[in-house]
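Allow me, if you will, to draw on your knowledge of protein folds for a short while. The matter concerns a single protein, recorded as an amino acid sequence and a row of backbone structure tokens. Could you please explain, in whatever detail you think fit, how the structure tokens follow from the sequence? I remain grateful for any guidance, and I place the record below:

…
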Amino acid sequence: MAFNYSKLSGRIVEIFGTRYRFADEMGWSERTLSLKMQGRRPWKQADICRAIKLLKLNESDIPTYFFTLEVQNNEL
């Protein structure tokens, strides 16, 4: 199951200016953030809780930013 993090990515840039600055605030390398945004590493509950605080979001925003399914186009 793949998730779409485009809204999350936009919010990161809106609040922090760069993904690097957000990753630094999370205590991660830019590579770790990149892997999470690509769906290659999971977002842990603690990660999500910290991220919503840093991004000035509410708990009710979690599904929109972290659990929006990626729509796949299966047309031939």
